[in-house]
Amino acid sequence: MYELKTKETDSSVIEFIEKIDNLKKREDAFKLLDIFTETTGYKAKMWGTSIIGFGSYHYKYESGHEGDAPLVGFSPRKAKISLYFATGDTGREELLQKFGKHTTGKACVYINKIADIDIEILKELINRSVAFLQKTYPQGGGAND
Fold it and tell me: 117 and 101 in contact (C-beta within 8 Å)?
């Protein structure tokens, strides 16, 4: 049976952010923490060793693979800041066109710094992602104090 690597932990989000070497990236991480917390209404939790997640949902694929994941989140990595939003949301691309300087991967949106993006569009992306996942996975959409 496949074992998920990224699980919610009891590690301190604040301690994790305070250990970021790059001062500017640390400041951006604290700003993102405020934006995600205020926008979602969820308390930040560490997922694995480096992802800060908000809310959670339980997914189950037709293959039988299932698990829990944050509704949205971010990770201040060395190279770029990874933003985690729902995949499969068709409205995401339209918002990303107005988002500012970024690149995308399969599930992530990568930014260099907060100054490169539109904060209001970030809030829209967060809200869309949460709503999309709660609608798609209603059995576990959002438990997280």
Answer: yes
